Amino acid sequence: MSQQSPDRSTASPHARPDASMSLLNNVMNHSLDEGYAEASARRDAEEGGLPRTLKAKLGLAAGLVLAALVVTVGAAQARISAPVVAKEREELIDRINAETSAADTLERTVEKLRGEVGDRQRAALRSQGGDQGSLVGLLAGATPVAGPGMKLVVDDAKDASASGGGPRESSGFSDTGRVRDRDMQRIVNGLWESGAEAIAINDQRLTSLSAIRAAGDAILVDNRPLVPPYTVLAVGDGKKLSRAFQASVDGLYLRSLREDFDIRTKISDEGEVRLPAAPSLIVRTAEPKAAAPAQGSGRRAADTEKGTS
User: Which of 122, 244, 236, 232 has its CA nearest to residue 188?
Assistant: First the structure.
């Protein structure tokens, strides 16, 4: 009987499936180089061995404590200085009230003196005006006047504001629906041209020296501010004056303001209107100077200069 030959093969262990990926396994198992790990451990040992997260928490706590301390100190200082600030504010309010009262007193004094000056000017005009004193006083606005006439009310559009941006924009009046100073100038000039004998706007009597200007968003008549609606009273033949004004160029201009910009207007004939005297009276007279002989040629030249008083 034959003997089995002995098995000379050596049994080898089963190979790992990832045996061929030893380099990648090594990198994954040792993601941190040993030298970096040793350096990190050594640094932690030198700094006291506290974890990094704990240091961050301690730093945050220290910052919060410092911020709370600053807020507390600021609140304490504000509480200490509050009575001082309140006292200074009360003193400032008292000073403003005192100065305002003084300004009001001075304004009343100025108005009183202006009235006295106007009365003396009117008296001098009546006493020295001769036969034409009353006519000169009427033309100069020195005396009140009453008689038939017309009433014209001009007002801003209902939705007018100071927002600006319209085709009638200007430095003084930026809204399309606002009545401007040049609008009132054209209205007044049109009434004079149509035959008005005397004119007043919001009880401000106009004379040949009156000025209608703008200051910001306000219309000034002789440096006195007016507020809308603007009521224009004119003395004259009411029906004739009204027809002539509405047919004039300035009347058509007012109609275009109403149609294009919704500015509100109302014209009516009045049986009697009353206009006050002008608040200030300025009367100028001119006198021709005597002719002086010409220098050198012997001829006489007429001197056309006029003096004013």
Answer: 232
Q: Which of 232, 231, 220, 221 is nearest to 172 (CA)?
A: 220
Q: Which residue has the tokens 């559009």?
A: 157
Q: Which two tokens stand for residue 186?
A: 């054209």
Residue with tokens 């209608």: 212
pLDDT at 175 over 70: no
Bridge partners, residue 300, by sequence = 293
Q: What is the DSSP letter of 21?
A: G
**Residue 268: which of 305, 227, 234, 296 has the closest Cα?**
234
Per-residue model confidence as pLDDT tens digits over 122-137: 777 667 666 666 666 6
Q: HEC profile for 94-155? A: HHHHHHHHHHHHHHHHHHHHHHHHHHHHHHHHHHHCHHHHHHHHHHHCCCCEEEEEEEEEEE
Taking a C-beta distance cutoff of 8 angstroms, is the pair 247, 253 a contact?
no
* DSSP secondary structure of 147-188: EEEEEEEEE--TT--S---STT--SS--STTS--HHHHHHHH
Please state, in angstroms and rounded to a whole number, the distance separating the CA atoms of residues 81 and 211: 53
